[in-house]
Amino acid sequence: EVQLVESGGGLVQPGGSLRLSCVASGFTFGDYDMIWVRQAPGKGPEWVSSINSNGGRTYYADSVKGRFTISRDNFRNTVYLEMKSLKPDDTAVYYCYTGGSWGQGTQVTLSS
Predict the structure, then answer these.
(1) More confident residue, 111 or 55
(2) Under a CB-based contact definition with an 8 Å cutoff, are residues 95 and 102 in contact?
(3) Using an 8 Å Cβ cutoff, are 9 and 81 in contact?
(4) What is the DSSP string of the chain?
(5) What is the distance between the alpha carbons of residues 45 and 87, in angstroms, rounded to a whole number?
(6) CA distance 55 to 40
(7) Using one digit for the tens of pLDDT, what is the confidence trace for 73-98?
């Protein structure tokens, strides 16, 4: 059974940083591209970032480019999203996704 478990969210002030993690199990992690998607309150899902199976290629939405960094550790079956210079618009539930499977999400909230 594929499982994706996100963690690392929380309440942070604008300009702050967080690192999200997604631990995967139930499949050969190193064979799959990984994706981070977020959903803000009252909005549809928004693609945030992707990384290919060996970590050699990364992609970012314009809204996060230069502030977020995606990475992965194929020995630990984990994908990360390092988020810096956070803005109120970054408030959302962040999900990792691959091959039709979603995690439960982790909440990121920017305090006013």
Answers:
(1) 55
(2) yes
(3) no
(4) --EEEEE--EEE-TT--EEEEEEEESS-GGGS-EEEEEE-TTS-EEEEEEE-TTS--EEE-TTTTTTEEEEEETTTTEEEEEE-S--GGG-EEEEEEETTEE---EEEEE--
(5) 18
(6) 27
(7) 999 999 999 999 999 999 999 999 99
Contact between 81 and 92 (Cβ < 8 Å): no
The encoded tokens of residue 24 equal: 């995967």
Amino acid at 51: I
In angstroms, the CA 104 to CA 112 distance is: 26
Pairing of strands 106-110, 10-12: parallel
Q: What is the pLDDT of residue 58?
A: 98
Which tokens hold the place of 60? Answer: 């970012």
Token digits of residue 30: 């190193």
